[in-house]
Structures are given as C-alpha cells and as structure tokens.
C-alpha cells in the first residue's frame, strides 16, 4: 500500500514528514495529562491538596490541552496543504503522461474509465495524504506512548492491557486482505458507473432522437446495481472482521479489571495506580480501534492508487535519442503496415505527397483513410515500413516538434468551453487579438463572431453547442490558419452543409491550404476533383491512384464511387416524397 503511494507521489515523497512530526507531538501532549492525573491521584490519596497545588495542576492541564490543540491544528494544516500540493503535482504529471501516450491507449480504454481515475481515484489518494495517513499515525503513536507510561507505572497490569493486541492483529491483517481482494472489483464497478453516466450525458441528444431513453437508462441502471452489490459485498465482508478486531482488542480491558482487582485485593497494587490504568487504557484501545478502521479504509483507497499507477505504467511513445528536424515538408509512406491490436488495417501503403501539393484519400468507409492520416501525426507507430516528412522518419522527430508541423481539421471539430478567441488562439498560444481576428477573417467566421452577444469573448459552450456545425468547422479552420503549420490534414465533413455555409467553408479551406502540403480525407468526391493527386484506398491498400479524369476513365472503384454519389446527389422532395 505505502509503496503504491510512494510510487505515485514520486519525487514529492517526504513532504509529509513535518505533518507526521506534529502528529507525534500532538499525541505526546494528548498522553501527558495521564501522567499529571496519576500524580494528582497519588497526592490526593495521601491527603487534601492545597489551593496553590490545585491551581498549578489546572494551569498545567490547560497548558497541555493548548499544546495538543496547537500541534493538532498545525498537523492538519500541514497535511492538508502538503497533500494537496503533492496531488496537484500528481494530477499534472498524469495529464502530461496521458498526452504522451499513443492514441491506441485511448481507443482501448473507456473515456469514463480514464476520467474516473483522474477525478475520483486521485481524490481518494489525496484523502489518504490529507487525512487518513496522519490519523493512522496518531492512532498508533498514542497507544505506544500510553503503553510506555503504563509499563512504568505497573508492568504487570500493563501486560494485561497489552495482551489483547497480538490476539487482535491477525484479524486486522485478515480485514486488510479481504479489502485488497474486494476493493479492485468495487473500483471497477465505480468506474463503470462513471463511464455509463458520461455516455448517458454526452449522448442525451442522440438518445432522445432515437427514443432510446429507457434502453440506455437500463445500462446505467445495471451499472449502478452492480456498484451497489459490490459496495454491500465490501462492507459485508470487511466490517464484521473489523468489528471482531475491536472486540478482541477490548478483551484487554476485561483482563485489566480481573488482574487489577486481584492485585488490589492482595495489596500489591495501590488504588491510584489502578484508577489511572482504568483511565489510560481508554487512550490505548480507542485509538487502536480507530486505526484498524482507518487502515482498512486506506487499503481500499490504495486500490485507487493502483489504478493511477496503471496509467503511469503505460509506456509513452518513444522519443528519439538523436532527434532530427526536416527542412522540407513532403510526406512519404513507404510500405506502411499497421494493425490495431490484432486487426491489420493497412497492408503496404506507398505514396508521396510532394511539398505544397494537395492529395486526396478516398475510398469506402473503413478502408483505412483516417488511420493513414493519424500516422502522419504519429498518433500510433506503424507496425511495418515508415512514415517520413521531408525524408525524416516521424519516429526520429521530437513528438512536440512533429505535432507543431501538422494542423488537423477534424470532421467533427471540438470547441472548448472557453471564449471563441481562446478557442482560435489554441492554434498559437500567445497570439495577439489582431492575429486572432485576422485568422478568423481568413476563415470567414469574423462576421458571425461579431454578431455573437460578446463577440470574440462569447463562451463557445460545452463542446461548442451554441454554434452550428458549419460555424464550428470554420472556427477550427481559423485555429489551424493561426497555427500556420506547413502540413494540413483535412477530414472533410460527411454531412452536407447548406450552400452558403459550404461556399464559406470551401473558401476558408482554400486559405488554410494555400502554400501547404495537404492531405484531404474526402467523403464527397466532387470537392476534390481539382486535387493534385487522388489515392483510392480499399481494405488497407491503395487500389488506384491518379487525377480525377484519369481515375474516372479507368472504370474502377473510383468511377463506381463517383457514379454512386452522382446518382444519390442528395435527397430532395419529389411528388410529396423524399427521393
Ligand atoms: N481504434 C481502433 N481500434 C480497432 N480498430 C479500429 C480502430 N480505429 C479504426 N479501426 C478499424 O480500422 C479500419 C480502418 O478504419 P479507418 O477509420 O481508418 O477507416 P476510414 O476509411 O477512415 O473510415 P471512414 O471513412 O468511415 O471514416 C476499420 O475497419 C476500423 O473498424
């Protein structure tokens, strides 16, 4: 458990030591009144105390309580601020690590699962650092100090107090083992609920449109039922054992009463010592019981740590030892093979996009076009062959530098829940307002931005919900224009836009692609008739290539796709029906 926490917190370890020191001092101050009480009792048994004595005792007691309160506050403040600092660092490192992971990792893992680790699991580990850890330390130190004091007062009675500890410890170990076994399952159930909730909220429009409310909710409902069952199972299995641990521990008090009464009877124990044992033994058992419960809770939270550790254990994309940087920006695929897990999706792709030319990738759905485009930005590593930019293998380039060379405009652009200006500025952090406006003008979005309530300062809304599809596309093009990368990858929108939006979009793309090396994934063939070169991809291979007219003349797949699109053209209403 502690090794997991140490591994997660990494270089921040040791930051908690001051908080631990305050807790130790707090517990010494907590135990100290027992010594004073013993002296008071012993004195009272010899005769009545003077006013001066009573005053001294009162002052001393108040002083000890004040010291205890002081160290308690200092310990809490220290643990809180150090724990929060350590976990801020962990959150940042996690974010940084995730950014370096290949896209394959995100395809493999559920979004909700990852966000559960980033939010809930990190909070759980933070809880260990800010509260539980010091609580456990304090709950162990206080019994140790109390036991040492009792041993000094009367070792025979002290042994009676201590005898239940070795009897109870195996039960604590058992509860820890049970919790270790069960917590993983409960963590997974909690992550599944998180995933289903995220899915439900993100797709609420789709669910409503398809009248799937009941069906989708039943998935969420069954994930929640699983979580409930796992939670009950964790409690039902560990709580009785923790309870048993407390009961066995408390047996010590019974031994104390029996042996104490026996010794008192025999006249080998004085009453003051017996009384002090009765009082101090409370400071012995109660914290130990509390430590047992907190340790079991910590064990559960440590399984959250295991999940965080799992993310850190994922190997990031390798960085070259001797990075190279291209001086020209043509793109070359040389016998590229690629597989997602088991499935081979590219089988020997060979092509070259000369600098400043526009090449289109066309082909049926699932042919491998997006995968080819993703390999240029090294979202994944090829499983065979090489992808080169300006003759340099992308694996030999620093990933930051490679990403800076490529602007990608997605089919469904995402706008962050920030102002329009910040969304555009993402292309070039630190760009001036004038640069942002210039890019927006070039992308034909300045006019509609100006009409928004706060112009460029209007918040785009979660996922840019307040804007139309065409408007979001143009903002993402403005972002790419501002980035001004030498390579542009365009994943053309499949949905038809209205003619006005379409015309604006085409002009915006024209501005973006001017003077760049461009790779377009084309779904509507009429938009790429003028491409410098067209690659027709099918089942992970390039099956045809050439200019539009040549490809039509070949009468192959391109021709077939073209004829199909010409025939469908787009739906219209004819004779009161869609055709
Ligand atoms: N993350 C993934 N994991 C496993 N298989 C994947 C993954 N992404 C895509 N595939 C599979 O790889 C193949 C190629 O997919 P890709 O998205 O590259 O095709 P595409 O030509 O771009 O399709 P579309 O035009 O529909 O976007 C498909 O069979 C697809 O199912």
UniProtKB/TrEMBL annotation:
Gene3D superfamilies linked to this entry: ABC transporter type 1, transmembrane domain (1.20.1560.10), P-loop containing nucleotide triphosphate hydrolases (3.40.50.300)
Transmembrane segment boundaries: 21-42, 54-71, 132-151, 157-174, 241-263
SUPFAM superfamilies, per database record: ABC transporter transmembrane region, P-loop containing nucleoside triphosphate hydrolases
Pfam family, one: ABC_membrane
Domain ABC transporter, first and last residues per copy: 331-564
A GO MF term: ATP binding
PANTHER family cross-referenced by the UniProt entry: ABC TRANSPORTER, ATP-BINDING TRANSMEMBRANE PROTEIN, ATP-BINDING CASSETTE SUB-FAMILY B
Annotated compartments: Cell membrane
Domain ABC transmembrane type-1: 19-298
Organism: Paenibacillus profundus
Superkingdom to which the source organism belongs: Bacteria
Topology of this chain in the membrane: Multi-pass membrane protein
Keywords, ordered alphabetically: ATP-binding, Membrane, Nucleotide-binding, Transmembrane, Transmembrane helix
Protein name per UniProt: ABC transporter ATP-binding protein/permease
Main subcellular location of this protein, as a coarse class: membrane
Range of residues in the leader sequence: none
């Amino acid at each position: 458990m502690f090794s997991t926490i140490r591994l997660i917190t990494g270089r921040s370890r040791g930051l908690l030591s001051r908080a631990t020191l305050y807790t130790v001092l707090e517990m010494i101050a907590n135990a100290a009144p027992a010594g004073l009480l013993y002296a008071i009792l012993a004195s009272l048994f010899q005769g009545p105390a003077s006013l001066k004595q009573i005053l001294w005792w009162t002052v001393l007691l108040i002083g000890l309580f004040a010291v205890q309160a002081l160290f308690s506050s200092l310990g809490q403040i220290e643990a809180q601020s150090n724990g929060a600092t350590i976990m801020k660092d962990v959150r940042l490192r996690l974010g940084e690590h995730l950014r370096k992971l290949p896209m394959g990792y995100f395809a493999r893992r559920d979004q909700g699962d990852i966000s559960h680790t980033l939010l809930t699991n990190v909070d759980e580990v933070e809880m260990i650092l800010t509260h539980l850890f010091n609580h456990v330390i304090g709950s162990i130190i206080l019994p140790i100090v109390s036991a040492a004091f009792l041993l000094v007062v009367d070792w025979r009675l002290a042994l009676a107090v201590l005898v239940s500890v070795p009897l109870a410890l195996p039960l604590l170990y058992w509860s820890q083992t049970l919790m270790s076994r069960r917590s993983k399952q409960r963590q997974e159930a909690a992550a599944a609920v998180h995933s289903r909730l995220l899915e439900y909220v993100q797709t609420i429009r789709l669910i409503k449109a398809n009248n799937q409310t009941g069906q989708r909710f039943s998935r969420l409902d069954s994930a929640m039922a699983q979580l409930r069952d796992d939670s009950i199972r964790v409690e039902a299995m560990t709580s009785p054992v923790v309870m048993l641990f407390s009961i066995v521990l408390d047996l010590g008090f019974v031994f104390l009463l029996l042996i104490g009464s026996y010794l008192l009877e025999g006249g080998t124990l004085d009453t003051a010592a017996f009384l002090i044992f009765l009082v101090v033994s409370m400071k012995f058992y109660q914290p130990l019981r509390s430590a047992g419960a907190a340790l079991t809770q910590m064990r559960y939270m440590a399984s959250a740590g295991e999940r965080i550790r799992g993310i850190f254990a994922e190997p990031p994309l390798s960085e070259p030892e001797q990075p190279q940087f291209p001086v020209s920006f043509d793109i070359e695929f040389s016998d590229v093979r690629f597989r997602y897990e088991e499935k081979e999706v590219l089988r020997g792709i060979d092509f070259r996009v000369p600098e400043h030319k526009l090449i289109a990738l066309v082909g049926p759905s699932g042919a491998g076009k997006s995968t080819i485009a993703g390999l240029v930005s090294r979202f994944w590593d090829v499983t065979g062959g090489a992808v080169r930019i300006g003759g340099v293998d992308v694996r030999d380039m620093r990933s930051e530098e490679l990403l800076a060379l490529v602007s990608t405009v997605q089919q469904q652009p995402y706008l962050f829940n920030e102002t329009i200006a910040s969304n555009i500025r993402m292309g070039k952090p630190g760009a001036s307002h004038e640069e942002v406006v210039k890019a927006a003008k070039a992308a034909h979005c300045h006019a509609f931005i100006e009409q928004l309530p706060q112009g460029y300062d209007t918040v785009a809304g979660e996922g840019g919900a307040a804007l139309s599809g065409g408007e979001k596309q143009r903002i993402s093009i403005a972002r790419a224009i501002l980035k001004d990368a030498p390579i542009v990858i365009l994943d053309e929108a499949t949905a038809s836009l209205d003619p006005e939006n379409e015309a604006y979009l085409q002009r915006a793309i024209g501005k973006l692609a001017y003077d760049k090396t461009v790779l377009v994934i084309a779904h509507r063939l009429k938009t790429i008739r003028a491409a410098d070169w067209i690659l027709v991809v099918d089942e992970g291979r390039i099956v045809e290539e050439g200019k539009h007219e040549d490809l039509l003349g070949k009468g192959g797949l391109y021709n077939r796709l073209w004829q199909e699109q010409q025939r469908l053209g787009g739906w219209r209403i004819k004779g009161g029906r869609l055709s």
